[in-house]
Automatic annotation (TrEMBL):
The protein's enzyme class: transferase
EC number, as in UniProt: 2.7.8.-
Segments traversing the membrane: 29-57, 110-127, 228-246, 252-276
Keyword Cell inner membrane in record: no
Pfam family, one: CDP-OH_P_transf
Record keyword Membrane present: yes
Natural source organism: Actinomadura gamaensis
PROSITE patterns for this protein: CDP_ALCOHOL_P_TRANSF (PS00379)
Example GO molecular function: transferase activity
Family assignment from sequence similarity: Belongs to the CDP-alcohol phosphatidyltransferase class-I family.
Domain of life: Bacteria
Keywords tagged on the record: Coiled coil, Membrane, Transferase, Transmembrane, Transmembrane helix
Name of the protein in its database record: CDP-alcohol phosphatidyltransferase family protein
Length: 311
């Protein structure tokens, strides 16, 4: 409600009427973020408000770069790396500035530890998202490769028995791939759009929590992510909401930051729990496919195995 509607409108103008590149927007987002940090370091109530505004604008540019890259087909691996690194630099700089400025004014060492916690939680969220994405990709590839191997061996076994191969859907592989279909809510921050309740990956989770699908669908109809407090919302809580509240109520930075951190970790634990359930589905599917491969291999003559390079 606060970032994407504005960013989407600016993307239309920027893409059609300017030659601004996604990487330039990424750099601009960092510059605005560092400007916000400078305001936070001063720490007076007007500067806290200006810093919150600059951070919001920084977020808006950060939201635009990926949209324009996808819209114009100008995305690159380097651009994705730059966006990720600059985001972390922005968080580090603003955490040091906001909490360090408050510590300089009050001498309260709790601000120092709060800065450490903010940087740690931000890194934890994005490292966890990237690792889950990588592991799920490996799991999908493993199942796909094993399924293809099983299908090839079974076809060879039927041929060896003189049977006419029947056109059929590989049900086990299809089920396994559905079980590891995209779960944007867990895979990557910029793909958090909610998961399909019919995807087998969510079957066990939805069975345990049948109300979840209804709540999720209601949120999605309002363009609200089921993962209500992720890395983006956590940063907004710390660097936008907290400075605004602190400009009105001195000393509010730590309580607002703590609440933001608790909210993010609560939703991260849900993602980890869902990933654990999907890993159990993966293990079961993998075991079935491995047994199929061994059973089919035993029925295929050695020379045919060598021809298929599956010996």
């Amino acid at each position: 409600m606060l970032v994407d509607p504005l960013a989407s409108r600016l993307v239309k103008f920027t893409a059609n009427r300017t030659n601004i590149t996604p990487n330039q927007l990424t750099v601009g987002a960092l510059i605005l973020g560092l400007g916000a940090g400078g305001c936070f370091a001063v720490g007076t109530w007007p500067m806290l408000l200006v810093g919150a505004l600059l951070y919001h604008l920084s977020f808006t540019l950060d939201c635009m770069d990926g949209k324009i890259a996808r819209l114009k087909g100008t995305g690159s691996i380097f651009g994705a790396w730059l966006d990720y690194i600059f985001d972390r630099v922005r968080v580090l700089a603003c955490a040091i500035a906001l909490m360090g400025g408050a510590y300089a004014r009050t001498g309260n060492v709790a601000y120092v530890w709060t800065a450490v916690a903010v940087v740690f939680l931000d890194m934890l969220r994005y490292m966890d998202a990237l690792e889950i994405y990588k592991v799920r990709s490996q799991m999908r590839n493993k199942l796909r490769d094993l399924g293809e191997q099983a299908a090839a061996l079974e076809a060879a076994a039927r041929a060896a028995r003189g049977e006419v191969p029947a056109a059929s859907v590989d049900a086990e592989l299809s089920s396994a791939e559905r079980a590891l279909g995209n779960d944007p809510e867990a895979d990557m921050e910029d793909r958090v759009v909610g998961d399909n309740p019919n995807v087998a990956l969510q079957a066990e989770f939805n069975k345990k929590f049948p109300w979840y699908a209804r709540v999720r669908d209601a949120l999605l109809r309002g363009r609200i992510r089921p993962h209500l407090i992720s890395g983006i919302e956590f940063q907004m809580g710390v660097f936008i909401v907290a400075p605004i509240v602190a400009a009105i109520i001195p000393g509010a930075i730590i309580p607002v930051t703590v609440l933001s951190g608790i909210g993010m970790m609560a939703f991260e634990l849900v993602i980890i729990y869902k990933f654990w359930l999907s890993s159990r589905t993966y293990t079961k599917s993998l075991g079935k496919l491995e047994r199929r491969v061994e059973e089919a291999r035993a029925q295929v003559p050695q020379e045919e195995l060598e021809r298929l390079s599956l010996a």
